[in-house]
Design goal:
It is built from no helices and 6 strands. By secondary structure, it is mostly beta strands. The termini are close together.
């Protein structure tokens, strides 16, 4: 199982990726190198139990959060 993150990066050499469970506990935390342009980051999710999660992606210039479910 994996989660694909499709993103466009401009002058952002690294992004911080966090996955939080429904209780707000960080269950995944990583720093990923990026290049300029569109790219796909694949995150292994086989270790996650089924349920709802929050994906946080941040860098020096932006921050975004998305909910997703693991089934």
């Amino acid at each position: 199982d994996h989660l694909n993150i499709i993103m466009q990066s401009v002058n952002t050499p690294q992004v911080k990726i966090e996955i939080l469970d429904i209780n707000g506990k960080i269950v995944y935390n990583a720093v990923q190198s990026t290049t300029n342009g569109m790219q796909t980051l694949a995150i292994e999710t086989g270790f996650l139990a089924n349920g709802l999660y929050m994906l946080n992606i941040s860098s020096e210039s932006f921050r975004t959060s998305k909910k997703f479910s693991k089934e």
